[in-house]
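@channel sequence for tomorrow's demo:
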Amino acid sequence: MPENGLSESCLDTQKDALEVLKETSRTFYLPISLLPAGLQEAVASAYLCMRAIDQIEDHPEMENRLKAKLLRQISNNLQGGTERSRPEEFAVGLHPYHADLEEVSLRVGEWALLAPMSIAPRIWDATAAMADRMADWAECNWAINSEADLNRYTFSVAGAVGLMLSDLWAWHDGTKTDRAQAIGFGRGLQSVNILRNHLEDKERGVSFFPPGWTLSQMHAYARHNLALADAYAQSLPAGPAMDFCQIPLVLAYGTLDALEQGKEKLTRDDVMALLSNIIKAA
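structure tokens (generated this afternoon):
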């Protein structure tokens, strides 16, 4: 047994998780990799579980009906999880679609069991609820007919993530947060994603813009929620939670600024410059 008490198989899964994380998210790889032991595994578990279902929701070729079926299957698997569950039990029903799904989705069981068991069920619950909501949205082809619908969608896939992060901070060291601001943190990041990807979404027949909304209105919606996200991050005590939140927020603001300047997205050099400024400030 290694000195830190983890088995070799657990260490391998943890290493794989960080590698898959690095491949799937330039926004969250760095802040997660910098978290202390225990909290790192919990946040990585949560991110990868949610990325697993997100990849299904965003699959460019899969029919919506099949997306809903697979998302509800994963939700049911997670709801049935226990401390004795094996990774394959969380992936029941996915094997017939092995050729269509990405690694991060097929390995959802490994990610579900990565977090310490004292907090893992909270992650399962949050991911299961999100998967069910994603299934509902897939079945209606993500029909956004009002700002209320946009709020429902951004809560479903991101605001609820902010709430879960607050639970993880509290579990780790007792950090208390404003939960309305936590929702704004998630919504703010998601609305930036909507702006960044809206042309691609349009190509697949989906729009997250309420009818009649302009780019300016969506930018205003994003900045309103990012203001809540700022308040959320600034209220955190110095420590891992604050450090974690700063990086995606800086990248979100940088992305908004780039989009308003007519760029499609931040370049790699832009990202590195922003991250360098954070590291220097720290």
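heads up for whoever presents: The chain has two domains: 1-119, 142-282.
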